[in-house]
C-alpha cells in the first residue's frame, strides 16, 4: 500500500503562451461574519467551454477578464448591476489579450497582448478597442501603483523578474529576480506585494515604492502563488477546492474558510476583490473527474472531436505499467477514427472511480458491437487536459487475488509483521507509478516494516474503494499514522498466491 511504503522511506531515509485549460470565472458576494470572510450568491460569470481567466474589477459592479472565442482570447466586460450583461472590449484577430486592469484616473484599461508572431507587449486600450503600446519590455503580469507607475514581471530567460516602470520618462529598474505572477497594491499603504520564488519556500514580500526596499511578510501556503488582500493585514489564497486566509498580525497558520464540493471548482487561482470589499472573483478549473467524465460521455456519444479535445497534444497511451501503445493527439485521432468507422456500437460504463489529486482511476465495463469487456483506465490530468491514459487489462485470471490482499490488510492493521510479510513473495518489488523501482526483495522490505509497525501504535488502513481485475487489486486507502490521515492508491499484483509487485500512486 502506497502510504505503507512511502512513510517508512521518509522515516528512514510565459504566462500567456502556456497551455490553456478549460477554466471558468466565478463571482461571489463577500461579507464578514464573526470576523471571518463569507461568500454567498455564487455565479459562473464566464460559462464558456474554453479559457476564461485573470479577472479584475473595473469598479465595484464591473468585472473584466480574458475569455476565448473563435480561437482567440479577448477581453470581456461583465456588468453585475445591469442584468449580468457582457460586452467584448477587444477583438484582435492578429493576437490575443490577457490580464486586463483598469488604469488609474483613466477611462481605459491595460492588457498583455500576445501576437501571432510571438511578440508579447503591454498595451493601453480605450473602451472602444483602440490601443497603443505602453512598454517595449516583455511583460508577463503587471499592477498599477499610480497612473504613471507600473510594477510588472518581465520575462528574462526562464524566469520572471520584478521591475518598476516609470511611464513618464520611460525608465525602469529591476527590484527582484525569480518572482511569481501575483502582484497587488497593499491596501492603506505605499507598498506592492509580490511572490518571491528565489528560495526553497516561496515568500510573500512587500516592495516599498518610495524606499525601493523589500521585506518578507509571510510564506505562501504550499507554494500557492495566487493571493489577494482582504484588508491591510489579511491575505486570502486558494488551494485545490478551498480558500484560506492568513492574518499578518497574528502570524498563525493559514486557515481554511471554505471548501467547495462541486466538481466544477478545482485548483482555485487568480483571486480578485472589488474596491469596496463586497465582491470576490476567482478562477477555477474543472475537477479531474469531471474532465475524465466528459471524455467518457463523448466516447459514448461517438463524438470524436469532443473526445479528442479532452487530451493534451502530447498525450501518451500505454498498457500498464508503461508499455507504449502510441503518443500524441494526432495518433489518437487516427486510431479512434478507424475504431468508430469499423464498429457499429461502442459504450463504456464506469462502475467504480477513484480520484487522487490529478489522477483518476476508472474501472470500466465496455461493449463493442455487443462484446463485453472489463478494464481499468488510469488518467493523469494537467492544465485541464488528460496527459496520459494507462490501461490495465485482465491478462491473467486469478480467483484468489483479493483474498491475499485481504489477508495482508488484516495483518497490517494488527501490526503483525510475520503475518504481513507472509503474503509477499521473496522477490517482491515496490514501484512508484508507472515503473520507478523503490525497493526489491522481502528481506529489505521486512527490515523497514518491522520498525515502522513498532513505532506506530495507531496504525490503521481503511479501504475506501477496491477494484479487482485479473490478478491485480487496486485499493484506494485512507491511512492513519501517528495522528495523521493520508489518502493513497496501491496496485497489487498477485502471482502463485503471493504479492509479487506493488505500484504506488501518489
Characterise the protein shown here.
The protein is mainly beta and 506 residues long. 15% of the residues lie in helices and 54% in strands. The strands form 8 sheets. A 6-stranded mixed beta sheet has the order 26-25-30-29-28-27. The chain has a 6-stranded mixed beta sheet with strand order 32-31-36-35-34-33. A 4-stranded antiparallel beta sheet has the order 2-1-24-23, with no helix packed on it. Strand 29 (371-382) and strand 30 form a beta hairpin. The chain is globular, with a radius of gyration of 26 Å. Mean pLDDT is 92; it is low at 1-19.
Give structural attributes:
single chain, 506 residues, mainly beta, 6-stranded mixed sheet, 7 helices, 54% strand, globular, disordered N terminus
Q: Summed up, what is this model?
A:
This protein has 506 residues and is mostly beta strands.
Report on the biggest sheet: 6 strands, mixed
Structure classification: mainly beta
**How would you sum up the global shape?**
globular
The fraction of residues in strands falls at: over 45%
CA(first)-CA(last) distance:
11 Å
Determine Rg (CA atoms, Å).
26 Å
Low-confidence stretches: 1-19
Helix content: 10-25%
- Give the number of helices: 7
Counting DSSP E segments of at least 2 residues, the number of strands comes to 36
Strand order of the largest sheet: 26-25-30-29-28-27
Mean pLDDT: 92
Record the SSE blueprint:
Blueprint: H1 2-12, E1 23-33, E2 36-44, E3 52-59, E4 62-69, E5 72-79, E6 85-88, E7 95-102, E8 108-115, E9 120-126, E10 131-135, E11 139-146, E12 149-156, E13 159-166, E14 171-176, E15 184-185, E16 191-196, E17 203-208, E18 213-219, E19 227-231, E20 234-239, E21 242-247, E22 255-259, E23 266-273, E24 279-285, H2 288-300, H3 304-308, E25 311-319, E26 323-327, H4 329-342, E27 346-356, E28 359-368, E29 371-382, E30 385-392, H5 401-414, H6 417-421, E31 424-432, E32 436-440, H7 442-454, E33 460-469, E34 472-481, E35 484-495, E36 498-505
Parallel strand pairs: 25-30, 31-36
Antiparallel strand pairs: 1-2, 1-24, 3-4, 4-5, 5-6, 7-8, 8-9, 9-10, 11-12, 12-13, 13-14, 15-16, 16-17, 17-18, 19-20, 20-21, 21-22, 23-24, 25-26, 27-28, 28-29, 29-30, 31-32, 33-34, 34-35, 35-36
Amino acid at each position: 500500500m502506497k502510504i505503507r511504503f512511502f512513510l517508512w522511506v521518509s522515516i528512514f531515509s510565459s504566462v500567456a503562451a502556456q497551455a490553456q485549460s478549460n477554466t471558468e470565472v466565478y463571482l461571489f458576494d463577500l461579507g464578514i461574519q464573526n470576523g471571518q470572510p463569507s461568500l454567498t450568491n455564487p455565479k459562473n460569470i464566464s460559462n464558456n467551454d474554453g479559457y476564461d481567466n485573470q479577472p479584475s474589477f473595473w469598479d465595484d459592479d464591473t468585472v473584466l477578464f480574458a475569455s476565448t472565442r473563435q480561437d482567440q482570447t479577448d477581453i470581456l466586460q461583465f456588468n453585475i448591476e445591469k442584468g449580468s450583461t457582457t460586452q467584448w472590449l477587444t477583438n484582435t484577430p492578429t493576437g490575443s489579450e490577457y490580464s486586463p486592469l483598469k488604469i488609474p484616473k483613466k477611462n481605459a484599461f491595460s492588457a498583455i497582448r500576445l501576437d501571432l508572431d510571438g511578440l508579447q507587449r503591454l498595451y493601453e486600450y480605450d473602451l472602444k478597442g483602440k490601443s497603443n503600446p505602453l512598454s517595449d519590455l516583455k511583460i508577463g503580469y503587471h499592477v498599477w501603483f499610480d497612473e504613471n507607475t507600473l510594477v510588472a514581471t518581465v520575462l528574462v530567460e526562464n524566469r520572471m523578474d520584478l521591475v518598476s516602470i516609470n511611464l513618464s520618462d520611460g525608465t525602469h529598474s529591476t527590484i527582484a529576480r525569480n518572482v511569481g505572477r501575483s502582484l497587488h497594491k497593499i491596501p492603506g499603504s505605499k507598498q506592492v506585494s509580490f511572490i518571491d520564488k528565489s528560495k526553497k519556500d516561496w515568500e510573500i514580500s512587500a516592495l516599498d515604492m518610495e524606499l525601493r526596499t523589500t521585506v518578507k511578510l509571510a510564506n505562501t501556503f504550499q507554494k500557492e502563488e495566487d493571493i489577494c488582500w482582504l484588508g491591510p493585514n489579511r491575505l486570502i489564497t486558494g488551494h485545490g477546492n478551498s480558500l484560506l486566509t492568513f492574518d499578518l498580525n497574528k502570524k498563525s497558520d493559514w486557515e481554511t474558510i471554505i471548501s467547495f464540493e462541486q466538481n466544477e471548482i478545482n485548483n482555485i487561482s487568480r483571486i480578485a476583490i472589488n474596491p469596496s470589499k463586497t465582491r470576490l472573483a476567482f478562477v477555477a478549473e474543472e475537477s479531474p473527474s469531471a474532465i475524465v467524465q466528459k471524455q467518457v460521455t463523448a466516447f459514448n456519444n461517438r463524438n470524436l472531436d469532443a473526445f479528442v479535445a479532452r487530451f493534451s497534444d502530447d498525450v501518451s497511451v500505454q498498457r500498464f505499467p508503461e508499455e507504449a501503445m502510441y503518443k500524441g493527439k494526432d495518433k489518437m485521432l487516427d486510431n479512434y477514427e478507424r475504431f468508430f468507422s469499423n464498429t457499429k456500437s461502442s459504450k463504456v460504463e464506469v462502475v467504480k472511480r477513484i480520484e487522487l489529486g490529478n489522477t483518476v482511476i476508472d474501472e470500466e465495463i465496455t461493449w463493442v458491437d455487443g462484446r463485453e469487456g472489463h478494464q481499468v483506465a488510469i488518467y493523469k490530468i494537467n492544465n485541464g487536459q488528460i496527459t496520459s491514459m494507462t490501461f490495465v487489462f485482465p491478462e491473467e485470471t486469478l480467483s484468489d487475488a483479493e483474498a491475499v490482499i485481504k489477508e495482508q490488510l488484516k495483518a497490517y492493521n494488527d501490526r503483525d509483521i510475520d503475518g504481513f510479510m507472509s503474503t509477499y513473495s521473496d522477490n517482491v518489488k515496490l514501484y512508484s507509478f508507472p515503473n520507478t523501482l523503490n525497493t526489491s526483495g522481502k528481506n529489505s522490505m521486512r527490515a523497514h516494516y518491522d520498525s515502522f509497525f513498532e513505532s506506530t501504535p495507531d496504525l490503521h488502513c481503511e479501504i475506501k474503494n477496491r477494484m479487482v481485475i485479473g490478478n491485480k487489486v487496486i485499493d484506494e486507502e485512507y491511512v492513519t499514522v501517528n495522528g495523521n490521515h493520508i489518502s493513497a492508491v496501491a496496485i497489487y499484483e498477485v502471482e502463485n498466491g503471493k504479492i509479487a509487485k506493488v505500484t504506488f500512486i501518489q
